[in-house]
Amino acid sequence: MLYRQKKHKNIIYISFKNVMNKTSLVKFFVLTLLVMSFSTICLSQKLRLRSQATPTCTSVTTPATWKFSDIYADGNIAVMGSYNCRGVFIYDVSNPDAPVLSSWYNPTPNLQFLEAIVIGNRGYFGAGGGTDGVHIVDLTNPSNPVLLGKVNSTIGGGYNTIHEMMVFDHSGSRYLLENSNSTGNRNLRIINVTNPAAPTLKWEFLSSDGGWVHAMHIRGNRLFLSGFTSSSRIDIYDMTNLATQTPVLLGSVMVGNDRNHSAWTNETGEYIYSARELSNGDLRVFDIRNPAQPLLIRSIQAAGLNINAISPHNPVVMGNKLYVAWYQAGTQVFDISNPSKPARLGQYDTWAAQFTEEDLAAVRESTKKFDPDDIVCGVNTLNGQQIAGYNGNWAVFPFLGEDRVLLGDLATGLYIIDV
Q1: What Rg value do the Cα atoms of the chain yield, rounded?
Q2: Could you please report the per-residue DSSP string of 101-122?
Q3: pLDDT digits (tens, 9 = 90+) for 217-239
Q4: In what order do the strands lie in the sheet with 248-254?
């Protein structure tokens, strides 16, 4: 028989040839069931789905499965951006077991909003196309979003298109940190958006090697920039005196390759977790207690976790837990009480993978070397192959609390889980 785990394309081959008597046969099946049960329990330990919501979306570009993007929340409001859909989906998550779509922010012209952030009753939505840049929106009434202002090349000195951004408060002012959705525009821009109707460009600067920065992270007064194109490093900056000077470079973490998608520090800022988005990409742990001399501690790959996914996408830390959106393997949750040695607690998989005809052909081909009496059961990775392409869990947001962690799936939208 072929035993198939619901979420994983996994097989192991076990022959009957050495099972010679009834007692051995019984022991054999007991052991097999224990192995299968253990592998299943490990994948769902301590994680529980509370709710799931897929808003109506007609994709306007391909691939049609890439519908939704980043997710963010504050209080009872959650906002989810769009990839090949359009607009921003605004949810009321006051009841995590039954989230309600309050509104769909989709002004004319219809825009792809790759980035969606909410802080208090104010939304910041970054457009991936067009010329609108960032919309700053009043969400006092989430059912009726009101545009307060825009940041783009003609208003506030921003970019017309946004790939990643952050909104943060510093010394009594609110700032927008953004990159361009074009890797040819490599400067980072910091814009004062305290008055959303009158944004002003504060600083503009390049990363230390001049590469295109994909993601940003701030811990205290330190800024971390993940180089992605023509860059193989994470830059560490001091922003203490942001009011009077551009961020000051303290050091760089050499990640060993470009495609460094995003990174997040532990709560003390002494360790950083970097996700490299490439085929068979890994999660790297660095000791950055001395920013001038970072130290690689370990690399975590899919095979070591017995999962099948192309790469990690976004790591996020809250307390002593590290959450990693790992595409086809869902969100992986790690205990980082020892920050140098993440220990996996469990996972929740948003991508209900199915065997394709190609997968089944590979299984049939690989089983030709076994006798007809052999059993095929599911535990190990199918032929050691990685899943190709990008599908599944794109984003994770744990900051509403461990009992209501938000996940974002490219195709199926919002999930709320209890960890």
Answers
A1: 23
A2: EEEEE-PSSP-BEEEEEEETTE
A3: 999 999 999 999 999 999 999 99
A4: 212-219, 222-229, 233-238, 248-254
